[in-house]
Amino acid sequence: MVLLEINGKKYEVEVSPDVPLLWVIREHLKLTGTKFGCGIGMCGACTVQVDGEAQRSCLIPAGDAQGRKITTIEGIPPDHPVKRAWVEEQVPQCGYCQPGQIMQAVALLQADPHPSDGKILETMKGNLCRCGTYPYIQRAIKSAAKEGKKS
Predict the structure, then answer these.
(1) In this structure, are 7 and 36 located in the same domain?
(2) I want to staple 85 with a disulfide (CB 3.0 to 4.6 A). Which of 11, 28, 47, 140 is the partner?
(3) Are 66 and 8 found together in one domain?
(4) Tens digits of residue pLDDT in 16-38
């Protein structure tokens, strides 16, 4: 039995503590916004936030996530500046990597509300996009940062 707090809700999940958090989120809790990509933490498709920090959920044993606050893409409100900027800048192409990209971008802006271009590139480089929308992603993050300045 694993006890988890995901998107502000508490869950008791009947799994081995060694099962990757990704599979608990997707298969047991049916929060399918978090995607499976490579399974070895290299692509970023499974990025979630753990205590506000972007983490690869395929690498985290569910037992290690107990007592921590986990946020998935479903836990980011639709009107969040990053989600709005993603639409305004027309970032999604196939869309598969976008939940992980958004989770990484939200964590970046929480840690650094006004990141430089270099900081954006450095932070986002571990999130792969097969469609190559990297310039759109960078513009969306900069747009969301500007919006954050206004609030």
Answers:
(1) yes
(2) 140
(3) yes
(4) 999 999 999 999 999 999 999 99
